Amino acid sequence: MDNLLIIKNVVKKFGDFIALNNVSINVPKNSIFGLLGPNGAGKTTLIRIINQITLPDKGSVLLDGKPLKQEDIQYIGYMPEERGLYKNMKVGEQAIYLAMLKGMTKNGAKTQLKYWFDKFEIGSWWNKKMQELSKGQAQKIQFIITVLHKPKLLIFDEVFSGFDPINANIIRDEILQLRNEGATVIFSTHRMESVEELCDHIALIDKSNLILEGNLIDIKKQFKTNTFQVGLVTADNEKLKAEIGEKFTIEDANFKSLNKELKLNIKINSENSTELIKYLNTKALINHFVEVIPNANDIFIQAVKSNN
Amino acid sequence: MNNKLVLIIKREFNAKVRNKSFIIMTILAPFIMVGMGFLIMYLTKANDSKIKTIAFVDAASLLKENPLKNSKTVEYINLTKLGADKAKVQAEKKEYYGLLIIPKHNSIEKTANTIAFFTKKTPNLILVESLEKKIEASLQHLKLKQLGIDIEKIKSTKIKSIFNLATYSGEKSSKFENGIKIGFGSIAGYLLMMFIMIYGNSVMRSVIEEKTSRIVEIIISSVKPFQLMMGKIIGNALAGLTQFAIWGIMIAILSFVALSFLDIDTGKIAQANVSIEQLEVAKEIMTKQEQLVSVISKMPITLMLILFIIYFLGGFLLYSSLYAAIGSAVDNETDTQQFMMPIIMPLMLGVYVGAFSVINDPHGPVATIFSMIPLTSPIVMLMRVPFGVPVWQIIVSIVLLVGTFIFTVWLAAKIYRIGILMYGKKPTYKELFKWLRY
Description:
The complex is a heterodimer of chains A (about 300) and B (about 450).
Chain A: E1 3-14, E2 17-28, E3 32-36, H1 43-50, E4 58-63, E5 66-67, E6 76-79, H2 91-101, H3 106-119, H4 135-147, E7 153-157, H5 165-180, E8 184-188, H6 192-198, E9 201-206, E10 209-215, H7 216-223, E11 227-233, H8 237-247, E12 249-252, E13 262-267, H9 274-283, E14 285-291, H10 296-307
Chain B: H1 2-17, H2 20-49, E1 52-58, E2 74-78, H3 83-93, E3 98-102, H4 108-114, E4 116-119, H5 125-146, H6 151-157, E5 165-166, E6 172-173, H7 175-212, H8 216-219, H9 225-262, H10 266-271, H11 276-298, H12 301-329, H13 337-360, H14 365-370, H15 377-384, H16 391-419, H17 429-435
Helix pairs in contact in B: 1-9, 2-9, 7-9, 7-11, 7-12, 7-13, 7-15, 9-12, 9-16, 12-15, 12-16, 13-15
């Protein structure tokens, strides 16, 4: 697959502190790429390097196969986590100014703004000052400003913070549509449910090091433990539990059901669950059988823990 | 790239000049300045315009030969016939401004020491002094007569001498002229300091505002931090020059309008309370006015204006880049205090050196050196310029200033690009130094 952005062996130091230690990441074209990591891991530094706000000490960044240069900022749209706009400036004027800084013409910016203002039905905000808008409204303007110049690489740092669920959905749909129209999205967040929902690729940074990178499905396969969640209807739950416990590694499971069946997570040694099903069939009535697939949250916690 | 710098300059300029307090200050200040000037003039005139009546009882017949003459502001009434006691009653009843009683004694000296002046309230000291001078002159006159000395001869011995000051190269000057030059130089120097402080602060506040509103990260993902900083500094400098130009034009127009409206002719004021003794003073004032015009017309006004703009821009770039660096390093204005001292100190030093050394000796070593040192040169050199500064000194001073501001801008940019992304901690000098190496 073609990579839009290639980060090669990037090192960044602040004095004695190493913020990024030899990090290499490939962001495939037209993907939604989750950049994950605990607080202070180095995500923001990496994002700032992509935005040319800071320069790496070592390593290189390639956009579309060519080393990143100053003019490339017009191809990148960035929405930082800590964000804001000029409070005393009018919405329309401010959006045009920021779009022109990205290299758009005044008329081009106006046309695009009109499109987005119509789409979000916020035409009446044009002449309002930023300080008259609510936080959620300001975030909407911020989103529009980020995507206005039709960048091929979009970088969102905690995009959903500050949005109510309804607006978060609108923004999520817009992001998906932008991806469908050809944009590549880098998504930095702590909210694992949105990673699960949106990202096809992820990279996990912890303590300045890249500890995980790749297709989300591949990673899930890599992290799965061949554990199956089962529900078994039997006369004596305790007796059956003890019996299975002798043969397999088990632990109690939790899921909603109508009966008071025995709920277990059973770990086996191979991917093949045929033997397990055959065995369980002889012991009880199976009314629930599902493979436990690690979610992004589990992977995150497990990877970070093992890195420590 | 330069296109973006222009965009930023435009925004910063607009943000500054559209600010309500800027508009109010720009329009109001000239009115206040001109208004205050004319208010003072008007009040002084109004105060003097009421005619004061002063009665006198001249028992010694001192004023017979040199009578007190009525002027536009003072009217004299002779109550000698009533005697001291009755005159006092009448003066109080008729609310005369004052009553002068000259008792009769054998010796002139005794008379001189027993003259009394009664008033309802504390008298106007200037008026008392002028009365004293008149009486003194009469007493002297009397004494001279008593001694049998020819008054005309005495008068002819009075000789006045005013030195004609000139430099070896033949350039003429006078104490008065020097005073005017000091005045002009000081106004230019103070004005420059004020502008640097006010607009430097405004640059700093604007940096802090961008930092606290968190827009800065969005902007520097589009432009280089250096461009943002320079755009801000240049935008503010242009706003400052705009304000300065508007003030200059408005003050000129307002003064002209006010002068023709109020019909206050400075010549008339000088003649307002003419008495024979004051005529000489009035003449002096008149010649001083003529001198003033000639001194100002002889001063290198165009050069001063050009140098003011050059030193304003140079000094402003130098200082405001430091202001910008400070603004970037902190999260709010209260944290700036610790860093302000090193900025304010040289500015104050410049003004003090200007106030003491330049006035004492405009071409002395202290004044010359401080007009070269870039941190003080804008202020001190502007104060020296009216006295005529050798061209090489101006060139050296400007070259040093330009070199230094390039250095401070470079230094500030290094702190700035790190500082704008640092939140939370109140930085120390040590940390700022560390940022320079990042």
